[in-house]
# Entry
Amino acid sequence: MGLFIKVCLVVLGTFLSSFIVPNECKRLEGYEFPVYSTSFCPRSKTEWENRSNAINCTARSGYMCMPNENLTELLEFCYTEPGLWILKGYCFYLVKRVSKVNTYDCSQFSYGCHNYSFLSTRIYEHPACIAIGNGCFLAEPFCESTLTTSNTIKSKTDWVGIVALCVFSVVFLAFIMSLIWRSKGTQAFSICKGNIDVELHQSDLCEPLTRENHNDKNSTLEGYRKRRTGVEKQDPEEHTTLINDNQHNIKDSTSKGGQHA
# Structure
């Protein structure tokens, strides 16, 4: 059970780590000046300055960060001017075809639409103008419902994937454990079989006396006795004949000896 929890935690950690994306930029083609994609725009003055230095912006070509014209990706670039004024009730986006900044009316935002103008270098103070998802600004009412539905579906899909991966891990571990158990069981059987063979061999050398073995031995002994008794108890007539023949032979040898004398 502890191993299962550890496996699930590792899987969950790997899954969650995929959402922690560093702010790495990738240069995009089709613009008149270098434009890079980014996972998020600067959230403070320090981050703003760091990103400006990272892509080599200068005092004459100021750093900017805003969505693309489809509101599907955030872009960072060094613009052709040091900075721009963002007017009350508007946000910025970059038009690829002409490589120019254009305005977007934010008056219908549920929140975050500024009621005063400010310089583009302070955009991090107005995150509603740089928060996008599913092709819209997150502060727009219709974007909120769309994003909620999308996140719900994605969340369910993600949890299904996590559960399926955990179940697969458990099944795989159970399979490995069964193989190990079978391997150990086979070795134990071989050892026991060897011991049984040795015991059987020893029992052949010194077989215990059982009723069947006792009967077999009695039968053998009885047969031997009968054979011996048969030799000792011959037919009387044959015995008399043998005695007479022996006496006759003795008389003949005696008479022959007297004649020679």
Q: What stands out?
A: The longest strand covers residues 90-95. Residues 125 and 156 are 34 Å apart (CA to CA).
